Amino acid sequence: MPPRRRKPPRAGALTELPPLKIIRSILLLQLFYYVAAFVLILFTTLVLGQKFSLALIFDWNSVRGDNTIGWTVGFLWVIVGFITVIPILLLVSRSKLVPDFALTIHLIHLIITSFYTKAIPTNLLWWSLEAASAALMVSLGVWACRYRELQPISFGTIPPKKPAVDGNESHVRGGQGGRDVDAGPSYEMVNVRGDENV
């Protein structure tokens, strides 16, 4: 009995995003998210002369609308969402995967915040700022990845520039294997007999 032929894997199936790569990307994005939040919130509290605590990062009660620190921490979380677009652009290869990763970051933040405070957030300002941060992260991340996807592909070689022989600029035409080929004379509009009467 002849050996059975194996079906080739689907394009983009397990070769593009294996589970370990997905988990590694999520962990790296989450780590960057919290490092950026830690640095921004620590810097801001030191500048304002306030006491820093991890509750400013992990406690949803720190985002409040009745004092300046609460508004500042809320604004910093939106800025962290803006900054996290950079590692999303570096780690996520396709624009259609950006919403999955961005919303996963915020879902994990919700879970960590709920475990830290032992309660699901009930603060409407916290929820609205998380939604704004997620929307900003998704929209800017998709835009940045699409911008990168639409850039021309460079194969690493730049054709050498050859000086023009007779003073005319050399023209490049397709179909010649990427070599510089002089296209000949330029084609400009010239008067044709009979055009003078028109």
UniProtKB/TrEMBL annotation:
Belongs to the SYS1 family. GO terms for cellular component: cytosol; Golgi membrane; trans-Golgi network. Its main location: Golgi. InterPro entries: Integral_membrane_SYS1-rel. Residues 161-187 are annotated as: Disordered. Pfam families: SYS1. Keywords: Golgi apparatus, Membrane, Protein transport, Transmembrane, Transmembrane helix, Transport. It comes from Exophiala bonariae. It comes from the Eukaryota. It is a multi-pass membrane protein. GO terms for biological process: Golgi to endosome transport; Golgi to plasma membrane protein transport; protein localization to Golgi apparatus. This is Protein SYS1. It is found in: Golgi apparatus membrane. The chain crosses the membrane at residues 31-49, 69-92, 101-119, 125-145.
